[in-house]
Design a protein that fits this description.
This protein is elongated. The protein contains 9 helices and 14 strands. It is α/β, with parallel strands linked by helices and about 300 residues long. α1 crosses α3 and α2 packs across α3. The strands form 4 sheets. Strands 4-3-5-13-6-14 form a 6-stranded mixed β-sheet, sandwiched between helices. The protein folds into 3 domains: about 70 residues, Winged helix-like DNA-binding domain superfamily/Winged helix DNA-binding domain (Arc Repressor Mutant, subunit A); about 110 residues, Periplasmic binding protein-like II (D-Maltodextrin-Binding Protein, domain 2); about 100 residues, 3-Layer(aba) Sandwich (D-Maltodextrin-Binding Protein, domain 2), CATH 3.40.190.
């Protein structure tokens, strides 16, 4: 088994056709066909359904391992380069959107200053989408909602964040402007909430159950920024973390209601349990933790851990 064979399999999986995979790898189609055929001979299994241009179940298993191997090889090169000179290479960071808005500007500035030879790629998405990308090696580390129960991923705390309700203009909840409320006041209204089973929804549902409150949803959205935007536009009240209201948005025709006695959401840093972080990823982790400690106390509702 050779690395070129695994690269060929990954290219076919990404581009769908042998010809497109050959162009992506700057080679000819016959080389791709040869690499795939030899890999299948070595493993004793058909990895690609030629008629459909898709990986077989066996091919999907091999692809998952191949991505991890490629990630470790890239980390190996970066580590060796960093031992002989400055820290250099690429880091791929995943981050949830509400956190990215306040954390990325100081983080990227500090990385650029301290490690100018590190190239940072950022994926902005939900925890649900980021976890499989980290697991499969497409990301080096992620900032996500926690807790997370996952055999392949380890998390450590970064900060806690207060939950609030955004009440649109004209909605009864916002009649008295910004104020603290108890979750019992929400029972009479339809809300925008995260999907059942998500970290934020579990937190909210646990509190509602404790208070014997039945919450009703008008829609369930796997995207905190989307829920906040719909609330800003007047669709329905939304329960969101406080940083879902960006500092630059100004004061709109909506109210912010702090939820009293509601536990905060927990945000943490996630890495794979297996394998070592590359030098660029390790440097990014350390800078990220330092930036959180410095900047979280400047934002109302955040507590660095």
């Amino acid at each position: 088994m050779e690395l070129k064979q695994l690269e060929a399999l990954a290219a076919v999986a990404e581009h769908g056709r042998f010809s497109a995979a050959a162009r992506a790898l700057d080679t000819v189609q016959s080389n791709i066909s040869t690499h795939i055929a030899r890999l299948e001979d070595d493993l004793g299994a058909i990895l690609i359904d030629r008629s459909a241009g898709q990986l077989t179940p066996e091919g999907q298993v091999v692809l998952t391992r191949a991505r991890r191997i490629n990630t470790e090889l890239a980390a190996l090169r970066d580590d060796v380069n960093s031992m002989t000179s400055r820290v250099t290479g690429q880091v791929r960071l995943g981050i949830i959107g509400t956190t990215g808005r306040w954390l990325l500007p100081p983080l990227l500035d500090e990385l650029s200053r301290a490690f100018p030879d590190v190239m940072t790629t950022v994926i902005d998405s939900t925890t649900t989408a980021l976890v499989p990308l980290l697991e499969h090696g497409d990301l080096d580390l992620t900032v996500i909602n926690t807790p997370l129960q996952h055999d392949e991923i380890f998390t450590s705390p970064l900060f806690d964040e207060q939950l609030v309700v955004i009440a649109p203009e004209g909605h009864p909840l916002g009649a008295n402007g910004d104020r603290p409320i108890h979750i019992r006041e929400l029972e009479e209204h339809e809300l925008l909430l995260s999907p059942p089973g998500s970290n934020l929804r579990v937190l909210i549902d646990d509190k509602a159950r404790q208070e014997e409150v039945q919450l009703r949803t008008v829609a369930e959205l796997d995207g905190i920024r989307l829920a906040a935007t719909l609330a800003f536009q007047g669709y329905a009240p939304a329960i969101v973390p406080v940083t879902a209201i960006p500092a630059w948005i100004g004061r709109g025709n909506w109210s912010v209601l702090s939820l009293q006695e509601m536990p905060p959401r927990h945000v943490g840093l996630a890495v794979r349990r297996r394998g070592m972080l590359s030098a660029p990823a390790s440097a990014t982790r350390d800078v990220l933790r330092r930036v959180v400690r410095d900047f979280a106390p400047t934002i109302d509702g955040l507590t660095a851990l």
